[in-house]
Amino acid sequence: xxxxxxxxxxxxxxxxxxAVAKQLNQLDVHCRRFIALSxxxxxxxxxxxxxxDASPRGGEPGFVKVADRQTLLVPDxxxxxxxxxxxxxxxxxxxxxxxxxxxxxxxxxxxxxxxxRDETEFLEQFAGEKxxxxxxxxxxxxxxxxxxxxAMMRSNLWSAESRVERAVLPSMGQMLKDQTNSVAPAETQxxxxxxxxxxx
Length: 200
Known about the structure:
Structural class: alpha+beta
Order of helices and strands: HHHEEEEHEEHEHHH
Helix content: 25-40%
Shape: globular
Number of helices: 8
CATH class of the largest domain: Mainly Beta
Number of strands: 7
CATH topology of the largest domain: Pnp Oxidase, Chain A
């Protein structure tokens, strides 16, 4: 078992100097372009104790706004109201983001500190969206890092041959029925999708 960094380093070579040098403390032109093209991200956060969370966020490409080289604005779209990410931000103020662009193997990782903003000037940044967000997550960039494409290449995530038919899984309604021991009839996948669309 590996229990310390020294033991860990015996298994791995030193990082390529370029992998260290490419870490930035602000958003350069390439990071800003990547964010403008991205319709999807995963936001990771941690709260008190072991309250860790990684949550997907999506919208039209560029739904996350770059306020300046040090600041991102992420609208909080309607979700399940568990508020895991938001309560973690209140607890620690720390987040990590991974931005993806469909068809692009590279990803963009950003680490930073976050605040929850509900002031009018923040909300109005998203006046053109279908629904105005209740709040905006303001992120101060500490680290920005373009990841190489090896993980995506290994997974073949974007290839047509890797697509999985939705029917290989039970409907979401059936899985929820099983997990919650509900006696109510399971929603069909079509009903669930219609509900998603109504609540977006």
